[in-house]
Design a protein that fits this description.
The protein is mostly helical and 243 residues long. The two termini are 21 Å apart. The chain contains 10 helices and no strands.
């Protein structure tokens, strides 16, 4: 990889980790499209999914006492079904098509949040369905959060149970995804080279975000992140059209 690719990776991962640490969301939604400005989208997906799995695993261990195990099992079963299909999308889709997919996911996420769209009631079927969609999105675009968040909000879980459940599902889905990436040869020399610099950068970003969190106004910062996601979606969409 060139110096520009590595420098871009460092800057993007640092920014995305800071946002995630401060707001609790946004890592892959920011990292994948911004990384794809400098490197192939499929490589950006591998890097972001790997980093996301590392952080989710740490969170899952910390929150392990609070997760709703039946819900976790159902969602992970769905993810195991969906993940191979997402990998197929990653294999056959062009870089342009992946960019369109990224823009669509980000715009959908923004619409859901801005309009306050929610599911009225959760169920076992909703859990499995959300897991399937999550699995597809994680292996294809590394943006699997929205369906899981919607399904868990519909269950009206206590905050601690919500965090424990979603952290476990993120970690489990990530392990499935990384296993498929490894089996399909996605960890190329370029991916390994970028991960060597991205992992420590992510740690720094999380630590900086944790220090900044008490000093910022959460609602305003969240609005700023949403605005940044809008700009990211627009740039990704323009890039896909121009490709």
């Amino acid at each position: 990889m060139g110096a520009v690719d590595i420098s871009t990776t460092i800057i993007v991962v640092l920014l995305a980790a800071m946002v995630q640490s401060t707001t609790g969301f946004g890592f892959s939604l920011l990292a994948v499209p911004l990384l794809s400005l400098a490197i192939p989208t499929e490589l950006a997906v591998v890097v972001a999914a790997t980093l996301g799995t590392l952080t989710s695993s740490v969170q899952a261990v910390a929150e392990r006492a609070h997760g709703d195990r039946p819900t976790i099992v159902r969602m992970l079963a769905g993810a195991a079904i969906g993940a191979p299909f997402g990998l197929l999308v990653l294999e056959v889709a062009s870089n342009r098509q992946l960019k369109f997919g990224l823009a669509a996911v980000i715009i959908t996420f923004l619409l859901i949040n801005l309009r306050g769209i929610t599911l009225e009631r959760g169920s076992s079927g909703v859990d499995v369905g959300a897991g399937v969609v999550s699995g597809v999105l994680n292996t294809s675009l590394s943006t699997n959060g929205p369906p899981l968040v919607m399904a868990l909000h519909a269950r009206h879980l206590a905050p601690s149970v919500f965090r424990g459940t979603i952290s476990a599902v993120f970690a489990g889905t990530g392990v499935i995804t990384l296993g498929l990436f490894l089996a399909s040869g996605r960890y190329t020399s370029d991916a390994r080279e970028l991960l060597v610099v991205a992992v420590p950068t992510m740690v720094v970003g999380y630590l900086v975000g944790a220090r900044l969190r008490p000093r910022i106004d959460p609602p305003r910062f969240r609005q700023a992140v949403m605005a940044l996601l809008m700009v990211t979606a627009a740039i990704t969409l323009v890039g896909a059209i121009a490709a």
